[in-house]
Amino acid sequence: MEPGFFKALCDPGRVAMLVRLAQCCKPCTVTEVADGCPVDVSVVSRHLAMLRDAGVLEAKRQGKEVYYTVRYSAIIETLRAIADCIEACCPPGGEPTTTGDQPTTPSGKPTKGTKR
Fold first, then answer.
1. What residues form DSSP beta bridges with 97?
2. What are the structural domain ranges in the chain?
3. At a CB cut-off of 8 Å and minimum separation 6, what does 66 contact?
4. SS3 116
5. Which residues contact 26 (CB under 8 A, 6 or more apart)?
């Protein structure tokens, strides 16, 4: 899992652009994405480049235009890896419980990375 993925998605404006691209269901230019945004085209372009660099979007140049599409499989793969990590470290059937300030499993043992 790349930290850049999360950094790219931590900005509400970039998330809104990602949603807009997903709703279009076709490759879109910077101008098309910017039409639905309250910021300047140059800002949209920088945001899309950050999403591309993080592997969230794919960019293809056709002449002077760059068309962006959502890389659904990359997003799904990353989110699935997160879910797998959470599942692997959390006990089946429930959330970790806490005793005092120390997180513990339902059996009362400290969770990984904590000291008792």
1. 104
2. 3-70, 73-104
3. 29, 30, 59, 60
4. coil
5. 69
DSSP tag of 104:
E
Report the alpha-carbon distance of residue 9 to residue 103 in Å, rounded. 29
- The 10 Å Cβ neighbour count of residue 67 is 15
Q: Could you give the 3-state DSSP secondary structure of residue 35?
A: coil
The two tokens of residue 15 are: 């998330």
pLDDT values of the chain reduced to their tens digit, one per residue, 116 residues: 678 898 999 999 999 999 999 999 999 999 999 997 889 999 999 999 999 999 999 999 999 999 999 999 999 999 999 899 888 888 666 655 555 556 655 555 666 654 54
Is 3-70 a domain of CATH 3.90.228.20?
no
Read off the DSSP letter of residue 113.
Answer: T
